[in-house]
Amino acid sequence: MAEGEAGVSGGALVFRGRLTEADAVALRRCHDRVIIRRPFRWLAGLAAAGMIVMMSWYIASHGPDTVSVLFLVGCAYVLFGFRAERTWATRRHYRRHPDEYLETEARLTPGLVAITNAAHRTEFAWRLVGGLADDPAGVLFYTRDRQPVLWLPSRLFEGNDLRERVLALAAKNGVEVSCP
Fold first, then answer.
1. What mean pLDDT do residues 150-168 have?
2. pLDDT in tens, 111-148
3. Which top CATH class is 5-18+102-178?
4. Could you give the angle at the alpha carbon of 58 between the alpha carbons of 55 and 63, nearest 5°?
């Protein structure tokens, strides 16, 4: 939720607003980092970089052929193109389906998490939250199988202590907080 407001109402932390295109991109990036943890991202990047160096040496010494050039392009895509392609796809989806990004209210109490918008109303106990990803761009709530449930962009936390309160509330309820 963005372009909205955040505050405390009757002991509950309340966030209202609508995701912007930039928020949708930040949500996708954070979710990707939750799914593919840092060691695996580093391993894939180092392997792709090593393969690029090795294939470049092979092409320089033996001459280009179809397989080596395609392999080089694939490794370059993993290293440079994948993130750009995911960003492009997220922006495209946001622009084509703006009606899917509804004005939403999230209410966090010591006992439960409630998410309400025009399409649905969801309430669940904190024990059903799989984890929180504390990212500089915002806070992502996700299920045990790492599906995103709620995204609170960082602009909702500017000039207040609500981020710390959300993280403390999650920790108090036994929810794992990670920094992807």
1. 91
2. 999 999 999 999 999 999 999 999 999 999 999 999 99
3. mainly beta
4. 115
Q: Which residues, 6 or more positions from 97, have their beta carbon under 8 angstroms from its beta carbon?
A: none
In contact, 15 and 105? CB cutoff 8 Å: yes
Instruction: Give the residue among 155, 145, 180 at the shortest CA–CA distance from 28.
Output: 180
For the record, the structure tokens of 161 come out as 């202590």
Single pTM value for the model: 0.81
3-state DSSP assignment of residue 48: helix
**In the structure encoding, which two tokens stand for residue 9, read together?**
């109402």
Is the per-residue pLDDT at 109 higher than 70?
yes
Query: Which residues face 5 on adjacent strands?
Result: 16
The structure tokens listed for 32 are: 């990707």
